Amino acid sequence: MALRKRLTEEDEDQLREWLGKPDAGFELLFKASTQGYNSATFHQLCNNKGPTVTVAYNAIGWVFGGYASEPWTSRGSYVQAPDSFLFRLSNANKFDPLKIPANQYVQNCLYDLQDRGPVFGGGHDFQVFTGTYQANNGNFINANGSSNIGYTYGNGMGHNVNTFCGGNLSYLDVEVYSIGKREEKEVPIEKKMLQEGKEWRKVQWSDEERERLKQQVAGYKPQVCSSVSQVNVLLVGQVGSGKSSFFNTINSIYKGRVSSQAMAGSQPHSLTTRYRTYEVRGERHGETLCFRLCDTMGLEDANTGLDLDDLPYLLDGNVPDRYQFNAAVNISPATPGFKNMAGMKDRTHCVALAMDICNISVMPQGAMDKIKTIYNKALKRGIPSVVLLTKVDKACEFVAEDLSTVYRSRFILEKVKEVSEKLGLPEYHIFPVQNYSKQTSLDTQIDILALSALTQILGFADDYLDEHYEALATENLQKLNVKE
Ligand SMILES: Nc1nc2c(ncn2[C@@H]2O[C@H](COP(=O)(O)OP(=O)(O)OP(=O)(O)O)[C@@H](O)[C@H]2O)c(=O)[nH]1
Ligand SMILES: [Mg+2]
């Protein structure tokens, strides 16, 4: 069974620095908490392995130990190893790391006896343990360790058992590492970034750009026909994918504060149970902007959630605002408020499929199939679809810290490609976004990303109107109503 290292990456870096070996790797040879505080086992596993590092972890969270520049071999004597040193690594008290060199009686640097664990120094400056104690598996153990700094190590430097290990030799663990070549670790894709300047989409991250996009969206008017004064964007997607939050994000931008008009939150079942056709008011004159964001109940795996049989009516604009979704009864012309005479102005002009970026790869096939079905139903009507890839802040640490790195993230790029492939949707219809979720004030970068997505959505809605100009002119919608 592979032993699990307790030594942190940060502490390894510190040891590399002290050793002057940036390429040093630390291979765990012996771990007392699982193999026992057993001197014979220590020698069996650590003898003749070259220089070693012994690291102790005590009951008050201090990490300390010694570097043996010569190998252990059970010589039965002291060993001259002047490059050896004792050390204290970062610890619970956040002291600076400390290196205590061998500066006196260097012929006594190591005491290499078969019936003792590692012993450093002629005064037994640090005797890690002696004899045999059982494995303590995460409990603390007093294994007869002792420390008497200042004989071989740190002579005249003022160090003692308190500065070395907080005066505590009750161990959580003791580990011994050999020093080899550092393994090239595979960097997980979540941490891979493209170089600056190599973004896969170009965005200007400035207040001016936010303002420009904001004005562009506020000034948007459907191009083709005066009968459509607002385009309808249908938000659909799995429960919790961020549909309502996307509306809240756009609404916040124009309200000038983080707003939560649409209920958003994490629940096993959809928090949104009513169909809502949200409008957004412009900041300056309070005029209604020329789009509606139509929020729906979330898709679920089983027979709950949005029923795909209701979808044609949503696409065709038959469903009244505030319609209460009902798992037991599908929408039909008998539904109260059903808009029988739905015209071009009522229809969906663009479908926005909200998908949580962290779920893409683990999404059950059934859920992906539902999204595909929605996309295909829209496609049959000629309605364009986009994907809002939400929660990008949860996908990568560096994106969480600085959203302007979103187009340098390989992980996000990979997800865009994955979604594009799974749905058969071009990549330029897929928009990574971060919705307001925990922020209390507006954020330029969040706004730029959301507004960029929205300007594209409005453009696609215009394309749809352009394409169906003829039907629009005659309101001959019959051929557009596929009802499937
Ligand atoms: N960190 C983060 N959280 C988000 C983001 N978008 C949404 N959330 C959170 O995810 C949860 C679900 O968001 P909602 O907007 O309610 O999702 P929904 O798709 O409307 O869900 P239902 O109405 O239940 O189907 C909420 O707790 C949001 O705050 C995002 O981009 N980043
Ligand atoms: Mg919702």
UniProtKB/TrEMBL annotation:
Transmembrane stretches, by residue range?
none
Checking SMART domains in the record gives: TLDc
Enumerate the InterPro entries for this protein: P-loop_NTPase, TLDc_dom
A Pfam family name for this chain?
A: TLD
Q: Where is the TLDc domain?
A: 1-180
Gene3D superfamilies per record: P-loop containing nucleotide triphosphate hydrolases
**Family to which this protein belongs:** Belongs to the IFI44 family.
Protein name per its UniProtKB record: Interferon-induced protein 44-like
Q: Look up and give the organism this protein is from.
A: Branchiostoma belcheri (Amphioxus)
Classification of source organism:
Eukaryota, Metazoa, Chordata, Cephalochordata, Leptocardii
The coding gene here is LOC109476130
